[in-house]
Amino acid sequence: MENLYQILAIIAAFTFIYSIFAGVLESISISDAMVYVVFGFLSGQNGLNILPLDIESEGVRLLAELTLALVLFSDASGADLKILKSSLSLPSRLLLIGLPITIIFGVGVGKLLFPNVSWLEVGILATMLAPTDAALGKAVVSNPKVPAQIRQVLNVESGLNDGICVPILFVLLAIVIPGNMEGSISDLVVHLFVEEIGIGALVGASIAVLGAQLGSFAVRKNWVTKTWRQISLPAIAFTCFATAQSLGGSGFIASFVGGLFFGSIIKVYKDEMIEVSEGIGNAMSLITWVIFGVTVVGKYMGQLTLPIILYSILSLTIVRILPVFLCLFGVTLDLESKLFMGWFGPRGLASIVFAVIVLNSNLPSGDILTTTVTCTVLLSIIAHGLTANPWANRYG
């Protein structure tokens, strides 16, 4: 119990101190995730050892999942559907063409750098690092200086690509791990995609529409107090996520789709609710990244090798940027816009969740895969954190 109070005191004190200096750090392009991870790493066993965290992987995974679900729901709720409808072909290209090409490129580079790792395990690695992160990309998608069309496209891409990658990951894991697969591969693929995406979208839309209608009715009747009005959006977000997960669907798809429907229906107090949920999401992100720094970074950074570092660099550059250019071929966008969209595909919470799943699967090359994901996320936090505001302001 004393350790628990010690952990609470340190994290709470750090949160307060960071809140005071957050504006100063952001003005010099130091992102919050960079500070959180460094603090976690320095506070863990490899540093001062003042945060005696020994959290089970499931705990880290659940916290990261809930954080990502809230970020996805909040971002989708604030999306401008009019702008999105006018440029719907762009996120469709990124998701239906760019995402598969990214995975294929990731497999090719992985097999070249890790010749002793099987094709299927390299495919798992490429899938874990294919989705972009909505939380780390928030500095770009929330910057009003960036053209609205580009912001909405990147927001939708990051909101849906992790949910699409979930069934791909599970299919590969089912094939790799003996005794996990029943029936043919084609049956498994169809089943997982229909189940994950279909159930996720249906659950998210249904719960969000019902919740938004009930909320709007309660507001008109003046039943809802200001305090509880602020809690409603996070509550609906977690309901969408948890319900979809419990029914076998993708909670991430449910969260983003639910956010789109909720935001399109709710009109009164919408901005206030989104602002509060973003504050809660920021607090959850802080805890998630600190735990990541203490438990994951401290454990796996000692296993870095040159191939792992090279793969991480290529994953954030060629493996991401080239597919964006290919899928946008023929689209009337200038070179900088395509390069901007290609570069700002940060890796973060979704990749961490996938890494925890793989870590619990006891794959032969599990340590290599987890270390590569950890290295890629860390490089992404640094590279995208340092370039987000300067390039966004210049581009705008």
Question: How much is the average pLDDT?
Answer: 85
Helix vs. strand class: mainly alpha
Shape: globular
Helical content (DSSP H or I, runs of 4+): over 70%
Strand residues, percent: under 5%
- How would a textbook summarize the main sheet? none
- Order of secondary-structure elements: HHHHHHHHHHHHHHHHH
Radius of gyration: 20 Å
Give the low-confidence spans: none
Q: Could you give the count of β-strands?
A: 0
Reported by name, the CATH topology is Na+/H+ antiporter like fold
CATH class: Mainly Alpha
CATH architecture label name: Up-down Bundle
The tally of structural domains comes to: 1
Number of helices: 17
Distance between the termini: 51 Å
Word description of this protein:
The chain has a single domain (2-171, 279-395), classed as Na+/H+ antiporter like fold, CATH 1.20.1530. The protein is an all-alpha fold and 396 residues long. The protein is built from 17 helices and no strands. This is Similar to NhaP-type Na+/H+ and K+/H+ antiporters with a unique C-terminal domain. GO terms for molecular function: antiporter activity. The chain crosses the membrane at residues 6-25, 94-114, 153-177, 197-219, 253-269, 281-302, 308-331, 343-362, 368-387. Keywords: Antiport, Ion transport, Membrane, Transmembrane, Transmembrane helix, Transport.
